[in-house]
């Protein structure tokens, strides 16, 4: 898989992504995560159990928790606001099941690095749903450890904006583009190499061009 060297400099796609800034909710969640990390001590990654319902109460509608099980990332809990905005129940579903081929491998490597390093990330994705609906997903993802200290969970908060006036998608079916990626050093540094979002987007462009039976984007 194509990779590029990274620092805390983010990836953006197009001018619309240049102004992406974390929401107050994202900032507040990062603050809570760092507070619990300090309480954890030298290990530095909070235990999943530290995120009690009381602490999560302000975030619950937009909260998500996912767990690595073998080679798959399972959604263990997805807040009601995210379900409503996405138009489907996501708890219990595989995140990776929505992707195939190189795009599945991209997200497998992308989410795995957050627990392997560990580190955090803020992201934004655009999803064309195959009708006149476009979703813009943004949020933060951070690592969590189990009771033994093994880092195998991801948690965070997100928001989904629905745009019904974006215009018809370029092809029928679901299309996904990565708009924004910025890594967060949570005390362990940042990966030297990361999956390349532009390669993911190129795969979407190839699918669009194949559906149109026209030339690929230059």
Q: Which overall shape is indicated by the principal axes computed on the Cα atoms? A: globular
| Structure summary, number of beta strands | 9
What is the CATH architecture term? Answer: 2-Layer Sandwich
CATH topology: Beta-Lactamase
Number of domains: 1
What pattern of helices and strands is seen along the backbone? EEHHEEHHEEEEEH
Counting helices, strands and paired strands, the structural category is alpha+beta
Question: Which sequence of strands runs across the widest sheet?
Answer: 2-8-5-6-7-3-4
Largest sheet: 7 strands, antiparallel
Mean pLDDT: 84
What percent of residues are in strands? 25-35%
- Could you name the ranges where pLDDT drops below 50 across 5 or more consecutive residues? 1-6
**Text of the CATH class:** Alpha Beta
Spatial gap, N to C terminus? 21 Å
CATH level 4 superfamily: PAS domain
Q: If helices are DSSP runs of H or I spanning 4 or more residues, what is the number of helices?
A: 5
Share of helical residues: 25-40%
Describe, in plain words, how this protein is organized in 3D:
With 218 residues, this protein is α+β, with helices and mostly antiparallel strands. Helix content is 28%, strand content 30%. The chain has a 7-stranded antiparallel beta sheet with strand order 2-8-5-6-7-3-4. A two-stranded antiparallel ribbon has the order 1-9. A hairpin with a 5-residue loop joins strand 6 (134-145) and strand 7. It is globular, with a radius of gyration of 17 Å. The two termini are 21 Å apart. Residues 1-6 have low confidence and may be disordered.
